[in-house]
Amino acid sequence: MANEWYPFTAFNFEVKLVVPNAKAHNLSLTLVEGEFAECDGLEMTMEPKKIREGGNNTTQINLVGPVSYGNLTLKRGMTPNFDLWRWFQLAMGGPTRGLRATGTVLMKDGQRNALVAFELTDCLPLKLKGPSFNAKEGQVAIEELQLAYSTLALRKP
Q1: Is residue 2 part of a domain?
Q2: Residue 32: which of 12, 20, 17, 42 has the closest Cα?
Q3: Four-residue CA torsion sign, 62, 67, 68, 70
């Protein structure tokens, strides 16, 4: 029987954020583990260096240029502890200023088996937004976290 291939679906994923030496900073070993409904910003962009050859006005040569990365945005989740808030405070000032985390976004199949892992290094919190409260609506509390990261790698789990 031939292998059956199905397209990857974007609704089944898990997000993990880990701060090295977390216990020394009074944080959980894993800050986040799959509590968000949306994840956006897994992107890399290379800007080529364009050069022209003397006398050849119809062709340009594209050389490898600098790579930039997007910002990861996590939405619609609420964690049961205050570790994301503590991490943001530790990263923004004092002797722990710039405290960074490593991140993994796992894309899963329908049976919750990991298919692809996006690995992020040097994650720095940029924005942390608490839930909006409205007594007339019965919505789930929403929290948004935006991270900058230094590298993005794709691997098989």
Answers
A1: no
A2: 17
A3: positive
Question: Which DSSP state fits 85?
Answer: H
Q: What is the CATH number of the domain that holds 135?
A: 2.30.110
7 domain residue, yes or no: no
pLDDT tens digits along 40-62: 999 999 999 999 988 888 999 99
- Do the beta carbons of residue 123 and residue 148 sit within 8 Å? yes
Contact indicator for 112, 44 with CB cutoff of 8 Å: no
pLDDT digits (tens, 9 = 90+) for 132-147: 777 776 665 667 889 9
> Where do we find the tokens 């006005």?
57
Q: What is the CA radius of gyration of the chain?
A: 20
Give whole-number Cα distances, 83 to 23, 54, 65, in Å.
11, 58, 38
Our CA dihedral for 53, 59, 65, 71, rounded to 10 degrees, sits at: 160
Pairing of strands 151-155, 144-148: unpaired
Identity at 6, one-letter amino acid code: Y
Instruction: Decide: helix, strand or coil at residue 94.
Output: helix
